[in-house]
Design brief:
The chain is an alpha+beta fold and about 450 residues long. It contains 16 helices and 9 strands. A hairpin with a 4-residue loop joins strand 7 and strand 8.
């Protein structure tokens, strides 16, 4: 199904806005933040000399500059590692992890006492083919490891014991690291589905998507970490429900639905048994099924009563559920899922548009049909031209035969995407072909 003009225009606007070019500007020292690229000291009370231009990495360096009598400083916003809305506000709610500091004021050491380095909150995509394949291989290993950790966590819950949350905490950080290293690599794996492992895969996918969503919105390190953990735990109450109910293909009756909805309260109880569960995680577990129009559960809350975290989680939860085959439901294409999100009046429409801008009109890993009557898997996004990603083509619809795999940058081609398609429409094992294309032995 195609997209409305409204959505297409919003996507173009979102991408062009996010990737706009900044120029060198003079700002007050009070406006200087971590992640800005300093060119020169313009005005000062003392005699501070910038030894080399570069990014501000630590709070120690930042505080030192502010304490040395500097009044105004020249910043290159094109080279700065901060997202636009943070620049506009001049007071970002996050700190960026950047390369080794190149700014020293009066011999301030780059090893000055400071908080530990944290990741740069600007999603990156490696374009070089060799690097991208290595990133995919690393992401694939992480995804397999993540499923094992998640399944072990659930197994311990089902056995009646209280699992150690530290394993999930480390997994959450590994997911964050992988997303920041190359957002396209890990998001490629979201489309590979196994209905028999839905609970584990859904938790991991929600964690990945929330990491991407939160970082693209410029949220703080703590918020991103908590939302990633929330993705892993928000449906954990499902682990205590009867397996025959989870696996049924029959239509659920009122009693069945009441049991299914009880996973929220069960999830809160489980999370409260774990040590030091962050408030954001508890909030998301409790409220990710609430809806802005009051139609959700368990308490029929409305927009003003639902945190932005739970509203984000609701969007991510719905999206991954729609693109997954489950015992009672067939999947839809990623494009169709985004279309349904856009038209869903029970979700926050502004956040939906931000989410679509985050993952792209044709999400990485999705199967698409080209105008040339070929099928391919989207392998990398094109942030400046979101309708023209890089696609790995491997099938001819005309001959109904697999072809030699070839890489096409649609931004440099006359070909274009007609629509997203489901692998089942062509009796295709997407997992098999994904590994053939992206992870050759």
């Amino acid at each position: 199904m195609g997209y409305s003009l409204k959505l297409t225009n919003q996507l173009h606007y979102g991408y062009s806005r996010f990737n706009s070019i900044y120029m060198i500007k003079t700002i007050s020292i009070s406006e200087l933040t971590i992640g800005m690229y300093v060119e020169n000291v313009v005005k000062q009370k003392g005699n501070v000399r910038i030894k080399s231009r570069g990014l501000i990495k630590t709070t120690a360096i930042l505080d030192s500059l502010k304490s040395k009598g500097i009044l105004e400083i020249e910043v290159d916003f094109d080279k700065s590692k901060i997202v636009e809305h943070a620049l506009a506000a001049r007071e970002p709610h996050f700190e960026n992890h950047i390369a080794d500091p190149t700014v020293n004021a009066n011999n301030v050491s780059s090893n000055a006492t400071t908080a530990s380095p944290i990741k740069e909150y600007k999603l990156t995509s490696i374009v070089h083919t060799g690097q991208h394949q290595k990133a995919l291989q690393d992401a694939d290993k992480l995804y397999v490891q993540a499923k094992n950790v998640q399944k072990d966590f659930v197994a311990k819950l089902r056995s009646g014991s209280t699992p150690n949350i530290e394993h999930l905490s480390k997994l959450a950080q590994d997911i964050i690291d992988s997303v920041f290293d190359n957002v396209d690599a890990l998001s490629c794996l979201l489309m590979l589905k196994d209905s028999s492992e839905y609970l584990a895969e859904h938790a991991i996918n929600c964690a990945i998507l929330l990491t991407m969503f939160a970082s693209s919105r410029g949220m703080s390190q703590a918020e991103i970490e908590d939302l990633t953990m929330a993705g892993l735990l928000m449906d954990i109450g499902m682990a205590s429900l009867p397996r025959d109910l989870l696996n049924t293909t029959a239509e659920l009756n009122e009693t069945d639905w009441a049991i299914m909805r009880s996973h929220v309260d069960i999830g809160i109880e489980i999370a409260q048994r774990l040590s030091d569960t962050p408030p954001i995680v508890l909030d998301v577990i409790a409220n990710h099924h609430e809806r802005v129009d009051g139609s959700g559960y368990p308490k029929a809350k409305t927009l003003s009563e639902i945190s932005v975290y739970s509203q984000m989680a609701a969007i991510v939860d719905c999206y991954d559920a729609m693109i997954s085959n489950r015992h009672h439901q067939c999947s839809v294409t990623a494009t169709e899922a985004l279309h349904q999100l856009e038209s869903d009046e029970t979700l926050n429409s502004d956040l939906v548009n931000e989410f679509i801008n985050t993952i792209g009109l044709h999400p990485v890993g999705s199967l698409v049909q080209l105008q040339s009557q070929q099928l391919g898997i989207v392998s990398q996004r094109n942030s400046k031209q979101p309708l023209n990603p890089i696609v790995m083509i491997f099938y001819s619809m005309q001959t109904q035969l697999h072809t030699a795999v070839h890489r096409v940058d649609l931004n440099q081609s006359d070909d274009y995407i007609l629509t997203g398609v489901r692998p089942e429409e062509f009796s295709m094992n997407l997992d098999k072909f994904f590994k053939r294309i992206f992870l050759p032995q």
